[in-house]
Amino acid sequence: MHEAVASVPPFVALAYLVAGVLFILALRGLSSPATSRTGNRFGMAGMAIAVATTLYTHDIANLPEIIGAIAIGGVIGFITARKIAMTDMPQLVAAFHSLVGLAAVLVGAAAYLNPGAFGILDAATQQIHNASRIELGLGVAIGAITFSGSVIAFLKLNGNMSGKPILLPARHAINLGTLAAILGLIAWYFVLPAPTLTAPWLFWVVIGLSFAIGFLLIIPIGGADMPVVVSMLNSYSGWAAAAMGFTLGNSAMIITGALVGSSGAILSYIMCKAMNRSFISVIAGGFGADAGPAGAGGAVVDRPYKRGSAEDAAFLMKQADSVIIVPGYGMAVSQAQHALREMGDLLKKEGVSVKYAIHPVAGRMPGHMNVLLAEANVPYDEVFELEDINGEFGQADVAFVIGANDVTNPAAKTDKTSPIYGMPILDVANAKSVLFVKRSMGGAGYAGVDNDVFYMDNTMMLLADAKKMVEEIVKGLAH
Amino acid sequence: MDFVSILSIFVMACFVGYYVVWSVTPALHTPLMAVTNAISSVIIVGALVASAEAGSAAAKYLGLLAVVFASVNIFGGFAVTERMLAMYKKKERK
């Protein structure tokens, strides 16, 4: 059978190339919301071509079973995609990553068991080619890490597992040792003259250790760093697909793997930069393990602050010329986005200019807040990224902060001892007045640091559940 | 295909990926992740090869299982991306 694979007609390679190009166009379409949907269609077409080509070029012994498998998976995927709440998108993406990882492991294992089908069998020795062994080994290792890492990320994001980092003693030594063992075993597998005869366990041990390291790598990473983790796992799932593409000599898989791999890597980089954290320190984990410096924690209680009511807030915003809304994850948790949009609409009717300012790490994954606002029908041309709007706070009458904290904390600029020092922030303090919606004065943000904005003369604290508060303000604006 | 030509495709695709992804607007980073998820399930190609070929029953069933997982991702990933993208609307101007 492998001879057939080796001598594929040129149109087959061409078809996979076309699929790969369509995937590039799918990502290209995302450069603007206007072209994005066309892009998504390109992606679907690419996938259809890739699947059809594969089915066409193989003697299929069991088409009904394959169609059944696609149908089962398709229905599960489709229903999940329809039902999922937009707030749960990070979990869904993590779950999807885990499936890509697992599929990569399964494909790798199948190739290991039936190398002839994949055309990776050396005719002379009846063993898998040495080059293919490396690709296979790396593919299953990355796939397994993606799988177990994504499962942990899913459990943490979904709240089945505490977002607090779990720190094992000597974890760095354990992790580095396991990684070294995986690479060592793959290298050994590579040079081994007859792997299936002398050490069949080798391949499976690589998979087992990789599952373990994926688990170990993610458990020490805290909830605040999840945007980076999700992006990183996105990248891994791409590299796993690329490694499998090398094994199969399939250009569609290689192009896609490289695209997804770079995409995840770039998103990780953007997230790290938005938190002023180095990638290494995120991977090392432990952020948010202790609740910040004890001194700052002690000083929180006694500082005077102004508390306002929904009526006060409604009055203040009605008088304003411009309001900038700063939503954070707390808004998503209390599902306040619809009420918020209603508030924005009422303000616009009063002639107030309303804009939204989004910090890159405002949600639990890159771009999460934008999706939530889009879901609530906030037009995307009212939503601005940090660097585009930060200069406008100085001219704004009201900054309305809802469910965000650390991303507005001036300590990131002034206090070198602060754990968030150096992180780019939204300069809400520059607005004429700040309305800060927060559940209570206790419980600082993820980083566990107090925020000086709470205690400024021009800040009014609106202490309540975000959704209830916004609904009250909407009532106040309506009459 | 020989290793070097495969490698050249890979390296070129990394560069293409780098420039294409930087051009994605930050507002669409979540759909970007969802759609990359869907397309990385092109690994279904490998799963189909495994499940289509006779020769090893174990490999066949591993392949079929991988087809199920990859299909969840393909259908789910594209559908959820479509759903998200449909939400992005411009301001209505009267």
UniProtKB/TrEMBL annotation, chain A:
Membrane topology: Multi-pass membrane protein
Single GO cellular component term: plasma membrane
Main enzyme class: translocase
Catalytic function, reaction form: NAD(+) + NADPH + H(+)(in) = NADH + NADP(+) + H(+)(out)
One of the record's GO molecular function terms: proton-translocating NAD(P)+ transhydrogenase activity
Domain of life the protein comes from: Bacteria
Bilayer-crossing regions: 6-27, 63-81, 93-114, 134-155, 176-195, 201-221
Domain NADP transhydrogenase beta-like: 13-475
EC number(s) recorded for this UniProt protein: 7.1.1.1
Alphabetical keyword list: Cell inner membrane, Cell membrane, Membrane, NAD, NADP, Translocase, Transmembrane, Transmembrane helix
Compartments where located: Cell inner membrane
InterPro entries: DHS-like_NAD/FAD-binding_dom, NADH_DH_b, PNTB-like
Keyword Cell inner membrane: yes
Main localization category: membrane
The protein's role, per its UniProt record: The transhydrogenation between NADH and NADP is coupled to respiration and ATP hydrolysis and functions as a proton pump across the membrane.
Family: Belongs to the PNT beta subunit family.
PANTHER family for this protein: NAD(P) TRANSHYDROGENASE SUBUNIT BETA (PTHR44758)
Name under which the protein is recorded: NAD(P) transhydrogenase subunit beta
Organism: Sphingobium algorifonticola
Automatic annotation (TrEMBL), chain B:
Molecular functions (GO terms): NADP binding; proton-translocating NAD(P)+ transhydrogenase activity
Organism: Sphingobium algorifonticola
Keywords, ordered alphabetically: Cell inner membrane, Cell membrane, Membrane, NAD, NADP, Translocase, Transmembrane, Transmembrane helix
Amino-acid biosynthesis is among the record's keywords: no
Topology versus the membrane: Multi-pass membrane protein
Subcellular locations according to the entry: Cell inner membrane
Organism classification: Bacteria, Pseudomonadati, Pseudomonadota, Alphaproteobacteria, Sphingomonadales
Protein name listed in UniProt: proton-translocating NAD(P)(+) transhydrogenase
Domain of life: Bacteria
